[in-house]
Known about the structure:
By secondary structure, the chain is α/β, with parallel strands linked by helices. Helices cover 29% and strands 16% of the residues. It has ten helices and 14 strands. The strands form three sheets. It has a seven-stranded parallel sheet, with helices on one face. It has a five-stranded parallel sheet with strand order 4-3-5-6-7. Helix 2 packs parallel to helix 3 (67-76) and helix 5 packs across helix 7. It is elongated and about 75 Å long. Residues 1-12 have low confidence and may be disordered.
Amino acid sequence: MFVVDNFPGSTKDFMPAPIKVVAPALMRAKVEPHLPEGVSVSWFDTSQEAIDLAPQADVGWFDLFSLKDRADAIVAATNVKWLSTIVAGLDALPLDVLRQRNVVVTNGSGLNSETVADYAVMGVLTMAKGYPDVVRAFDRREWPTDAPGRFELDGSRALVIGYGTIGRMIGKRLEAFGVRVTGVRRTAAPGEDILDGASWRGQLGDFDWVIIAAPATDQTKALIGADELAAMKDSARIVNIARGDLIDQHALIAALEERRIGGAFLDVTTPEPLPSDHPLWSAPNCMITMHLSGRSQTSMFPRGAERFVANLHRYVAGEPLEHQVDLAAGY
């Protein structure tokens, strides 16, 4: 409490205005018992409620509904100073608006890294052992006399493009299967078998697996295009657990149909949902898993709530927030 002199001889008690937070009601039970003093929260159940409440927010958390509505709420949040999201990727956010308003953004990097890494390895195993054909045989109640997939992971080589938190987890898991893993990030580390962004294309033909785990930015769109697909082994497989637009899908469909690569495991596509008549559905040796990797867990929301509460205490105390993103870089 502060004492403010309004005029000589008098005083008036003054309480600073509370920090106004707009957040999803789904997270209320996990967040409300741990709120710091000096915070007032408005909880929304629907996207329209979020958009209507957004202009009053100093702190906004607009997750848990459609990407379009989320963006509309952020645009409507003209007074927001800090935007929190439990999503790691920023490609669905109105980044130009956030940059213009100088908004601090924290994301969900690391919240579901383990489950996404698990999914990537599942994709590798699925293609190595021809598991979709096993499931189809099961549905037909057939008993094959030969295995539809005979590729052995031990001794194979994988290129993981985007060797951040998730990429490293994928690498660690694959190494346990005897796979030699090479990572790609902005700065090379030859002693650690990590290539930089300028050199990996020249070595694409060395790898049995090309796994995409890079952030979606203007620089990574169509990262894998016709030239990259042509440089790969005709037996090589692609796994994409990043974003659909990191691959040129027209070029990928052509490469699959012409059997110029061994296959593709795609958790992500462009657009999403993928229309039922899209040719990617029927491309040979292609499996699509409907962007389920990050949803195949139960811990993301509780951990996201814990992260939000911890950062909210830091915000109230005027301390730096953790997991801030670089809006200029887009991740």
